[in-house]
Amino acid sequence: MSTVIVSQEELLRHNSVLSSLKNRIAASSLERGHALTYRVKTYGCQLNESDSEKIEGILRSIGLIEASEEAIPDFLILNTCTIRENADVRLFGNLGAYKSQKKQNRDMFIAVCGCMMKQPENIERIKKSFPFVDACFGPSDIHLLPDILDRKLSQKKRVFSVSDEDYLVDDTDIPVEHKRKFRALVPIMYGCNNFCTYCVVPYTRGRERSRSSEKILAQLRELASQGYKEVMLLGQNVNSYGHDREGEISFAELLKEAASIPGFSRIRFMTSHPKDISDEVIYTMQKYPNIERHLHLPMQSGSSEILSRMNRHYDREQYLKTALLFRKCLPDATLTTDIIVGFPGETEEDFQATLDVVAECRFDSAFTFQYSRRPGTKAASYPDQIPQDVVTERFGRLLALQNDLTFASNESVVGKTEEILIEGRSATAPDVLTGRTNSNRLVNFRIPSGTKFQGNLIDTTAEDFDADKFEGLLAMVHITRAKPYSVEGELVSFIDE
Ligand code: 5AD
Ligand code: SF4
Q1: What is the pTM of this model?
Q2: Which of 47, 84, 311 has the most ligand 1 atoms within 8 A of CB, as the residue to mutate?
Q3: Which ligand does the CA of 276 lie closest to?
Q4: In which residue ranges of the chain is CATH 3.40.50.12160 found?
């Protein structure tokens, strides 16, 4: 694998392929008597979500429109994840259903992309057992989608295009369709160099390659001027941003520059690696209130022995030092983490060490995972794999502890009034809105009767009440009740009607 910077000439060529595809799609739409539709289904992490925004951008730029929820789309793209085994199982389980959809729409185009495609056995399986899949491409090949569509549509042959190269195309050179009107996902770097021994990502997403800070900041200024309130800076390990570019600024500096751009209420970033996060990043968060009051700092294990066998390059003490510095500098902020239970060789003592650190850090929430043996990773060949019943039992104990901590964290904000960025209607009830605090806490809240919006009374009981019209607005909300994974509240006032 090697990094290949895609040239401007190559990008111009893609643009001309896009224009010819656009003509072809327009002709097909006329022939079939309706606009052709697409659906992109995304599994896995935020980087996949960001990749899907580019895939959608490309599909829209050739004239496709998003399929409604019930409809069978003309173009279906499945963006896969392979971080844990159940992700693989899910894809192959779902593919069967798409086969019957394709029977109903014989012209349907089905492509599978994402991290699973970097594992040759998955490609082989699709080639042999899923002949109705028209194309496969890898996570670094999204800019090649116009070519892939063109080849499939003109030659009618299946296209398998998973490159070994780690392409670097600047995001601003690809059309992007941001899924939420208030939030822009902005990758600042791709790939990972860390080779944690349990993880497939360095094999699927290749080596670290950072975008130029000049281009990132120009993109951020543009997004701010378009009215985006929230921006999420993405990378597998954002703290090593720029290390692969001669003379590039550090992540802390990038964060400062981003926070100085007028317009964003919230700047978020994911994911931080405890070995690379500098104190400067924490001081920067402290200094700029428009940087989210939340740090996601994956710990993975509280045992130094296990951390060393995971190849994490920090030990329990170093992790605690960073976590406690963060708690001291930003006492109202939230700290969240990822933890793996049942890594090969994990003893009861090691697991106890994890419980101890969890109790000491009092994480506000945590993603907890059972270790999944991923083919090709170093830990997959470790001899001392842990029996499933032991993993399940430990996992239950960790979950019980973390659930208590999460609930206590939610209880600690009851009675406060916080600024919420509204995300739309809540999943629970049509007259309840949902949003997040600046510390990334999920808040479901009601609008009390008598509340006015743009001079008019809001009637949440009215038949045409549409909670989604508040998406992207900031509001002050009084927190009234803690729930296990969220809090409830009542609207006090809108900030920016
Ligand atoms: N098994 C279990 N969890 C894993 N993760 C990554 N690889 C594995 C694996 N093989 C978890 C880590 C990481 C998160 C994104 O997924 O905790 O931080
Ligand atoms: Fe995987 Fe480790 Fe890289 Fe995160 S830092 S993507 S866990 S290898």
Answers
A1: 0.94
A2: 84
A3: 2
A4: 3-168
